[in-house]
Amino acid sequence: MPRVLVVGSANVDVTVALPRLPQPGETVTDGTLLVAHGGKGANQAVAARRLGAEVRLIGCVGDDASGREVRQALDGEGIGVDALLTTAAAATGTALIVVDAEGRNQIAVAPGANRALTPAHIDRRQADFAWAEVVVASLEVPLASARHALACARRHGALTILNPAPLPEGRLDCLDLADYATPNEGEAARLTGLTLTGLEDAAEVAAAVRARGAVHAVLTLGAAGAFADGPGGRLHAPGFPVTAIDTTGAGDAFNGALAVALARGGRLAEAVRFANAAAALACTRRGAQPSMPSRADVEGLLAG
After folding, report:
1. pTM above 0.85, yes or no
2. What is the pLDDT of residues 225-248, one digit of tens each?
3. DSSP of the chain, one letter per residue?
4. With contact defined as beta carbons under 8 Å apart, do 18 and 100 qualify?
5. What is the mean pLDDT of residues 87-105?
């Protein structure tokens, strides 16, 4: 089995589906509520596990009922949670999500315990980095911890994927530790200072991401799929047409799937297409972790 180590957040997601997104100061009613588990790290771990990888997660939850439920749910998926720290200093992270009838979302996060993950905790998990074939890090944990995780992965010879989300306000100083950087359109535009409105701008922006240190830039473009640039050249992998119900977690499905495909030794074109299919399927169901597809689902879409 492919071996994937994820370093990132674990949250509780409180999602309200509404006819449309509220304007500032506006209340929109007639919504429906879904409470589920989320957090970029945990979502990516669930995605990778359902797609056939052996997965471990390094993160932090609060010493509270939510934290215990998150740990139990991840363990139930078959994900290794020995490195999921528990802290009494903060509550388990929580995300408040609003989704409209077209699947678009607005997300506000109280990171809570996720901010308690330190480089020292990363250091205590060297055996996990030695075990991993691919290490995925995102930025709902402290930037110093994500950077340290990528450096540990490099020392142990693992491939590294940096999902630079959410993009910090200051300088992102760890792109040179990323074999694959996977920003979405907004993140890539902010990261490079360039305009990215679709496929026509993707080549220039991807080259600029690589110029900042990443070996490969893989830009996720929503319905347009993904654009990748690396030492082997450039490619565009079109998206899969689906009816989007909720786009929450689609990027996490993409990153988890990319990690699995790369750990299996797949070529980049195949890996990005596989990741596009996983992300598309995640958009067809409500919630983050509840929407992560199985390998059979993804293979069915690819075969169709």
Report:
1. yes
2. 999 999 999 999 999 999 999 999
3. --EEEEE---EEEEEEE-SSPPPTT----S-EEEEEEE-HHHHHHHHHHHTT-EEEEEEEEESSHHHHHHHHHHHHTT-B-TTEEEESSSPPEEEEEEE-TTS-EEEEEE-GGGGG--HHHHHTTHHHHHH-SEEEEESSS-HHHHHHHHHHHHHTT-EEEEE--SPPSS----GGG-SEE--BHHHHHHHHT----SHHHHHHHHHHHHHTT-SEEEEE-GGG-EEEEETTEEEEEPPPP---S--TTHHHHHHHHHHHHHHTT--HHHHHHHHHHHHHHHTTSSSSGGGPPPHHHHHHHHH-
4. yes
5. 95
Predicted local distance difference test score (pLDDT) of residue 198: 84
Domains and their CATH numbers in the chain: 3-10+39-92+112-303 (3.40.1190.20)
Residues marked as catalytic: 252
pLDDT tens for residues 6-24? 999 999 999 999 999 999 9
Torsion sign over Cα 200, 207, 254, 304: positive
Pairing mode of beta strands 226-230, 216-220? antiparallel
